[in-house]
Every structure is written in structure tokens, then in C-alpha cells.
Amino acid sequence: MSSATPNQALIGSRWFKYASPATFYPLAGTLAPWFAVLSLLLFGLGLYISFFVAPTDAQQGEAYRIIFIHVPAAWMSMVIYLAMAFWAGLGLAFHTRLSGMMASALAPSGALFTVIALWTGAFWGKPTWGAWWVWDARLTSELLLLFLYLGFMALQAAIEDPRRADRAGALLALVGVVNIPIIYFSVQWWNTLHQGASVSFTRAPSMAMTMLEGMMVMSLACWAYVFAVVLWRVRKIILIRERNSDWVRQLQQKGVL
Amino acid sequence: MGGYGLYVWGSYAMSALLLVAELVVLSQKPHQPPMDPLEDES
To answer: B23–A229: do the CB atoms touch at under 8 Å?
Structure first.
């Protein structure tokens, strides 16, 4: 027995409409360019604040400017993994085709932001700690995150049947979720060389407001970039996986593809 | 950059390179596997 009102049911049916690859494909095509433009504008503004507005740090000098890309990239690496695991789990539970495609589309971007976080972290670590790399809990768990992304992609690539690949990938993605709180809380749980969070939900940020603004704008730019790229990639995945369906053939006949 | 140019620019240059590389890879036409004849008949 359903307690949903007719209005709620209508809203629900509108959302579920986009669970189909055939209806999500044009929606993704409409949204991706908007996110791309937004990303460009936000990156421009974020870089301007990061290099021309934010003051020099009293302790770290100009080297601290790396955080404007390092912190957003590290956040994205974790958020994308959670999103990937969410879609993968949804596909595993409800056998929705689009969920597996979304998880597959998210993985390369997640891996890329993890590499950026590790690379920029090393370039920040060398002048501030005197070492490119240390086997500290935060760095090691972030490296493990990269291996989880690579493992997910390798596993999916190794299995020919996409539905089986989705299921196997989903199991790995869901098991790997345990690593996210380990990364996030590692600086509290263990005595790490990596500094604690400068921005937290529970207390005021321990940095100048202009620095925080620069970091937030760069984070929003990364979000918009990821939305654009993932929507673009999922369209390609949809076309490959749905190549035998009538709607893709119709698009091919119309010369749209 | 107060003597930190290598580190700051090295970070941003590599980040930009990776993001652009992702866009280049995405803009390439995918290798489409041939249609499955069994699915085609259904």
C-alpha cells in the first residue's frame, strides 16, 4: 500500500524517467555544456583569487598556494568515490542499467583527482616537510584510494559482459568505501605528519577568509568540471552499451551520431 | 613565488595537464564493438 500523494507520485515518475539510458542521454547532453562553461568561469575566478587576492601565508610563504588545487582535488577524490560506490550499489540492488554506467563514468575522473591530490601533496610536502613522500596514514590511505579506483577500472575492463562487470565492480567499490572515513579521520586517529583539517563542519576555518574563498571557488570549479566530464563520458558509455537498441539506431539513421 | 616557483607551478602545470589530457581522451571517438548478431535478431 502506497501513502504517496498523486503529486508526489508524479514527481517520482519524472525522476525515474531519467533512470533510463534513452532519456538520460539527451538530458546529459543538454547539461554537460552548461557545467563546462560554469567550470571555466569558476576556474578563472578561483585562480584569480588564489594568485592575486589571497595574501602570502605568514608561515609557509608562497608555497601554500598549492592548497588551492590540492585540497579541492583531495575532496573530489573522496566525494567521487562515494558517488561511484552509491551508483554501483544502486545498480547491484535494483539492477538499473544506468547506475553501472554512472559508476563506470565516475571512476576515471576519481582516479585523476586522486593523482592530482597525491602529486600536489608531494609538491607541497617537499618545501614544507622536506620530503616528497612519507608513509603517513593520510598519504598511504589516499594512495590506497588510487589503487581502488585503478582496481575498479581494471576489473570492469577484464570482464566482457557489462552487467557482470558492473556487479563485480560494485562489490569492490562498496568494500572500498571503508577507506574514505579512514582517509578523512586519519589525521585525528593517528599521529600523522599531514596537518589536520583547516576547514571543518564543526568549527570555524583556521585560515584567512580570502584563502577560504579561493579554496571554495576552486572546489566549485572542480565540481562543475566533474559534472561536465562525467555526463560527457556517460553518454559515450551509453552509446556503446546500448548500440543494439532501437533508439540508438534511430539516432544513427538520423545522422545525429 | 618566493623561491617556491618549481613547487607551485609544478603543481598547477601537472593538474592542468591531467585535466586537459582527460578532455582530449574524451573527445576521441570510442572504439565501438561490433553489434551483437544474437541481440540483433531479438
So the answer is: yes
